[in-house]
Amino acid sequence: MRTLTRIAELREALAEERKNGRLTALVPTMGFLHEGHLTLIDEARGRCPVVVLSIFVNPLQFGPNEDLARYPRDPEGDAQKAAGRGVDILFAPQANELYRGERSVIVTPLALGEEWEGSVRPGHFAGVLTVVAKLFNIVMPNVAVFGQKDAQQVALVRAMVRDLDFPVEIVVVPTKREADGLAMSSRNAFLDDKSRTRALILSRALGAIELQFRNGEQRVDALEKAGWDVLLGEPEVEVDYLAVLDPDTFRRAQLARNGSVIVVAARVGGTRLIDNQILKTP
């Protein structure tokens, strides 16, 4: 595995791969890799002969009161895990390499990014889309692999690729979970034992909604009530939102359908977690 920190170095290395007709897959991450990230690498490895993993804690997607400074980092451990999973190139730039000088242009989402995470974290998705667009332009991947856990982000990346005509295939990998159902996340490192136990309420709420849907309930208000009934059983978990949404528009409809997405976000012991579930008929 080669570790590169400069855009020019990465472009030169990938130009040589393209010259030899080798397709490239990109896995964009913010590092502190866990098994969820590694399954994205596995997916990329199975699709293209060249796998680029980017690790960049993107300051543009953090608000002024968010956890940029304390976001967990483990560059040496990340490099070992990436190499062990077959990454060919690890791209780990500093902020001043990706954001040189004063910014004049960003990628701003429209209605798809206004609610839910977009409402709770103003400017977050503009930061995400801007850095993803930059990575697409730098790497020029044939395939880019993302995790389903960030469902609204995935929908926005797909919309950006469609609307701005990026020649890249977006592949989405199902959320990787711990044995007890907690969605894997780098921020889980902030949870103490009590908070870790309380955090399970999120996946249980998703499961309650999914069960109702599988039993034939389609009314969104009834499905959401089933989830809220679970969440209210853990009063120390501060819920930002719980909703059953259309997967393309991220708007509520009166009735859920096969493919509708449940999204939930909450603060657990000071740590903010998100999770989601795609509804599927039996």
Kindly describe this structure:
With 282 residues, the protein is of the alpha/beta class. The chain folds into two domains: 2-173, Rossmann fold (3-Layer(aba) Sandwich); 186-275, Pantoate-beta-alanine ligase, C-terminal domain (Pantoate--beta-alanine Ligase, Chain: A,domain 2). Helix content is 38%, strand content 19%. The chain is built from ten helices and nine strands. The chain has helices spanning 7-19, 35-47, 75-84, 95-98, 117-120, 124-139, 151-164, 193-198, 200-214, 220-231; strands at 2-4, 24-29, 50-55, 89-91, 143-147, 169-173, 237-245, 261-268, 271-278. A six-stranded parallel β-sheet has the order 1-4-3-2-5-6, sandwiched between helices. Helix 3 links the parallel strand 3 (50-55) and strand 4. Helix 9 runs antiparallel to helix 10 (220-231). The longest helix has 16 residues, at 124-139. The radius of gyration is 19 Å and the shape is globular. It starts with a strand and ends with a strand. The mean pLDDT is 96.
